[in-house]
Amino acid sequence: MDWAFLAPWIENENQKWLFSEINNPGGKIIPVPSGFEHDSFRMQTSAAEWWQYLKYANKALKVCHPSQCGYITLFPQIPTALGLRKRFSACNYPIIAWSFNLGALYSGIKGEMAKHALNSVDKFIVHSTSEVSSYSSWLNIDISRFEFVPLHRPLRPIGHTEEQDSPFILAMGAARRDYTTLISAVKKLGYRTIIVAPEHALSGIDIPNTVEVLSNLTIDQCNTLTQQARICIVPIANNVTASGQITVIDAMMYGRPVIATDCIGTHDYIKHEKNGLLVPIANVDKMTEAISELWKSHNLREYISQQAKSYAMDNYSKPAAAKKLKILMQEFDS
Length: 334
Description:
Layout: E1 2-6, E2 27-30, H1 47-63, E3 69-74, H2 77-87, E4 95-98, H3 108-118, E5 123-126, H4 129-139, E6 146-148, E7 169-172, H5 179-189, E8 193-196, E9 211-214, H6 219-228, E10 231-234, H7 245-253, E11 258-261, E12 277-279, H8 284-296, H9 298-315, H10 318-333
Parallel strand pairs: 1-2, 1-3, 3-4, 4-5, 5-6, 7-8, 7-10, 8-9, 10-11, 11-12
């Protein structure tokens, strides 16, 4: 069976995703249609954006005929669009929803429409063990169609070292971030802090003069800051769905010590006091203690940094994910 891969960031067929890791010449990369716009910071998908996802699904069905092809998708909108088309198709083509992650478990009309479309998905790959049961229950789909695979990230060269003259804490991201708790903690400590996030993520929060807020940075700029940070912090205000894994893994791969909220999105990735520190949700005192301990102890930072990088390379790399993908594809080929 041939397989087609769809993701909102694919602009040309040269972006091989994981297919190159498993030597799969039958893997087809489907670029997004002309004019397709993808904004990873958007809070919700508009009607116009849903229309472009449906156009993308239609394109995939034309490029790779469903009688001979299976489809691997990224993020929830594309499998929803492709699943909706499948419900009105005579072909029972397999759909694997890789990196399936929702910001919330929707109710009402939005939730019912999602359940209707997603019932056509054959396998959901989630990046948190807790999401296996929560999504199965919410969608009323048998738990056997869900599988946990750790999120993978590309290996990038390390070109910068920790900023020594003016050390800083770094936090970035917008998905369900708890910047209220973080800022309350760093305000007590007075440590220089950089937050990379859109304005809406810090709406209504009083920003002290020790905290610098940046937005609209390039990926390269974000990667540079991650490498230069003394500590990377991922504060999460979400224990229903997974948030924050990308930021956690990127910091770990760069060998930076991470403090994160102990929640669905992080407890599969950070082993407390081994490759990072976990703190309870919305607990300013525990967040303050963790930051202070890690900031003051060079030896602790070095230990956690080394453990984090080694663990991330072994478990969160493309080769590690590709092994899981190959096994999954073979299940449908048999």
